[in-house]
Amino acid sequence: MKTLRNGACLLSVCAGLLAGSAAWSEEFAVADPGLRYQQGIVLERRGDERAAFRAYLEAGEGGYGLAQRKLGELYDNGDGVQRDYQSSLKWYQKAREQGVPVPAPTVHSPR
């Protein structure tokens, strides 16, 4: 029975990613940072930078290392947010603590 429930949940997740509905976003935003990160990828590919950033931020705050690295990159490059090297450094450090590889330091942003 648990497998069936997990399968139904997976179908719901996939349907939500494809539909991009706000209700789906709110339902899973806090529940699973990994899913929220994946949703951020989909939103970014669709060109919705604001929603993608929110998804990455929620996933990063939830402790998801890949989202933390992505936030470091967004702040480092000023993609969808104002360039902020201190925030970039903070998120890169959090990702590194999770064991996620981060980019090498650059002249403008010491890591």
Secondary-structure map:
Blueprint: H1 2-19, H2 22-29, H3 33-45, H4 49-61, H5 65-77, H6 85-97
Concise overview:
This protein is mostly helical and 111 residues long. It has 6 helices and no strands. It has helices at residues 2-19, 22-29, 33-45, 49-61, 65-77, 85-97.
How many structural domains can be distinguished in the coordinates? Answer: 1
So how many helices? Answer: 6
The major pleated sheet works out as: none
Tell me what the CATH architecture is. Answer: Alpha Horseshoe
N-to-C span = 48 Å
Choose one word for the global shape: globular
Mean pLDDT: 80
Low-confidence stretches: 1-12
Q: Would you list the SSEs in sequence order as H and E?
A: HHHHHH
Estimate the strand proportion: under 5%
Tell how many strands the DSSP assignment holds: 0
Rg to the nearest angstrom?
15 Å
Helix coverage percent of residues? over 70%
CATH class: Mainly Alpha
Structural class: mainly alpha
Kindly identify the CATH topology.
Serine Threonine Protein Phosphatase 5, Tetratricopeptide repeat
Q: Main traits of this protein?
A:
single chain; 111 residues; mainly alpha; Serine Threonine Protein Phosphatase 5, Tetratricopeptide repeat; 6 helices; globular; disordered N terminus
Would you write up a description of this structure?
This protein is mainly alpha-helical and 111 residues long. The protein has a single domain, classed as Serine Threonine Protein Phosphatase 5, Tetratricopeptide repeat. 70% of the residues lie in helices and 0% in strands. The chain is globular.
